[in-house]
Design a protein that fits this description.
- The protein is built from seven helices and five strands.
- The two termini are 15 Å apart.
- The protein has 150 residues and is an alpha/beta fold.
- It is globular, with a radius of gyration of 14 Å.
- Helix 2 runs parallel beside helix 7.
- Strands 3-2-1-4-5 form a five-stranded parallel sheet, sandwiched between helices.
- It has one domain: HAD superfamily/HAD-like (Rossmann fold, 3-Layer(aba) Sandwich), CATH 3.40.50.
């Protein structure tokens, strides 16, 4: 999505793979440690909120225990778990539900996900989308931050 600076009103982040390392990344580290939030994500969410951008996490699976224990969930405006109604990404209805819950239009929404199929569906609905590169997360976080700038 290089060179495009949409007027972003809603930032939607996938949880596993974007906000947290992937399972492969976790297996390469300490398997007994708590699931860590990826470096730079908390700052990204805070920056988006400072810019007046509504923030949301849209994930196929979110455990209630994660929501209670993780500070990131209290930072975002909305947490949408696809498991609640069993309509999972990349089903377009998962993204449409997120728009409904947040009250935002597709054309003002930026979706960030590490799965190409999810990015394709979000873009087909008129959303701006960034494929998060788990091999180079810093570059992806920088690209998101640049896209949020007015």
């Amino acid at each position: 999505m290089a060179g495009v600076s949409p007027a972003v009103g809603l930032l939607v982040l996938d949880f596993a793979g974007v906000c947290t390392p992937t399972s492969t990344e976790l297996l390469d580290g300490d398997a007994t440690a708590a699931i860590p939030i990826r470096p730079g994500i908390v700052e990204l969410v805070a920056s988006a909120r400072d810019l007046g951008v509504t923030t949301a996490i849209l994930s196929n699976e979110i455990s209630i225990s994660w929501k209670l224990a993780e500070d990131l969930f209290s930072m975002v405006d909305h947490v949408v778990s696809c498991a609640d109604n069993r309509i999972f990404k990349p089903d377009r209805r998962a993204f449409q539900r997120c728009l409904y819950v947040t009250g935002h239009a597709a054309e003002e929404t930026l979706v960030v996900d590490d799965e190409a199929d999810n990015i394709t569906v979000a873009a087909s609905l008129g959303m701006h989308a960034i494929l998060f590169d788990t091999a180079a997360p810093g570059g992806s976080i920088d690209a998101i931050g640049e896209t949020l700038q007015p």
